Amino acid sequence: MGRDAQNTRDQGYLLDNQQAEAGARFTALSELFDPWTFRHFETVGVGAGWRCWEVGAGGATVPGWLAARVGPEGHVVATDIDTSWMRDVSPEGAGFEVLRHDVAADAPPPGGPFDLVHARLVLVHVADRERALRAMAEALRPGGWLILEDADPALQPLICPDEYGPEQELANRLRRGFRELLRGRGADLAYGRRLPRTLREAGLADVQADAYFPVTSPACTVLERATVLQVRDKLVAAGLATDEEIDRHLANVATGGLDLATSPMISAWGRSPAG
C-alpha cells in the first residue's frame, strides 16, 4: 500500500509513511491482502517475460512476487512518492526497480508499455483520480491488464461488525472519527464500488470485479493498533476522541478479544483493447 499522487506529508496524507507505525501497517496489509492480490495476478496470467508497473507500492512484497513470476526476461518497476520502505532493497537483489514517482502528476515510468499495471489502496486517497487512472491505462500495451484494488469504507463502515458491548461500541466510534479524518483529507470513502464502471469508462474490456474483507484476524489487530497510533493526535485535536478513550481502546485491542474487521477491498480488472 503506497501513498501515490498529491498526498505527500506537507499536503496532509493521513497515514504518513515516515511514521514508525507505517512498517507495522504494511506488514499487516500484506498478510491480509497479498494472497488475494496474487490470486488476481494469476487470474490475468502474469508470467515469464511480462513487464509490470506496481503503483504506490509502499513495501516490497507485491513487486517482489511479480519479479519472481516474470523472471529475468521480464521487468518490474515499483513506484511511490515515498520509497523509504523499499530503500534497502537493491534492484539486483529483489529483481525489481524502485522509483520515486507521482502517478497523478508524472509521466509513466520507463519500461513500458506494460503487460500489467497494478495499484492497491492508492486511488481512494488521490484527489485527481481521473488523471491517475488515465496515466495507468495509457501505459498499457494492447491487450495489457490494469488491476485496481481499493477500499470502500462506506460499504462496510464498522471495525467491529458484531457490536455487542461497550468495547465494540467504542471501537466503532473511533472508526467513525477515523473516517471523518479521511474524508477531510479528500479520500473518497465510496470509491471502491465504482471501480468496475471506472475501468469501462476508461475504455478497458473484459472488466470483472470482486470484493474481500476479513472479519477477524491477528493481522487485523496489528493493523488497528498501528492505525490508531498513527492518527491518535489528529483524532484528539479534531475533538473526535479523548486520550483516555484511545488508551482504553488500545487496551481492549491488546487483549485480542475484539473481532476486528477491515473495510471491503474491491478488486477490479480490465484489459486494454488489442491494437
Question: What would your notes on this structure say?
Answer:
This protein has 275 residues and is an alpha/beta fold. It has a domain at 9-153 and 187-214 and 263-271: Rossmann fold, CATH 3.40.50. 39% of the residues lie in helices and 18% in strands. It is built from eight helices and seven strands. It has helices at residues 21-44, 61-70, 91-94, 129-138, 166-184, 195-201, 218-237, 243-254; strands spanning 51-55, 75-80, 97-100, 114-120, 140-151, 205-212, 265-271. It has a seven-stranded mixed beta sheet with strand order 3-2-1-4-5-7-6, sandwiched between helices. Strand 1, helix 2 and strand 2 form a beta-alpha-beta unit. Helix 1 (21-44) packs parallel to helix 2. It is elongated and about 55 Å long. It starts with 20 loop residues before the first helix and ends with a strand. Mean pLDDT is 89; it is low at 1-12.
Which properties best describe this structure?
18% strand; single chain; 275 residues; elongated; alpha/beta; seven-stranded mixed beta sheet
Spell out the blueprint of helices and strands.
Elements lengths: L20 H24 L6 E5 L5 H10 L4 E6 L10 H4 L2 E4 L13 E7 L8 H10 L1 E12 L14 H19 L10 H7 L3 E8 L5 H20 L5 H12 L10 E7 L4
Parallel strand pairs: 1-2, 1-4, 2-3, 4-5
Antiparallel strand pairs: 5-7, 6-7
For the record, what CATH class of the domain at 9-153 and 187-214 and 263-271 applies? Alpha Beta
Count of DSSP strands: 7
Q: Roughly what percent helix? A: 25-40%
Q: Major sheet: size, sense and barrel closure? A: 7 strands, mixed
| Beta-strand percentage range | 15-25%
The chain-level mean pLDDT equals: 89
Count up the helices: 8
Overall morphology? elongated
The name of the CATH topology of the domain at 9-153 and 187-214 and 263-271 is Rossmann fold
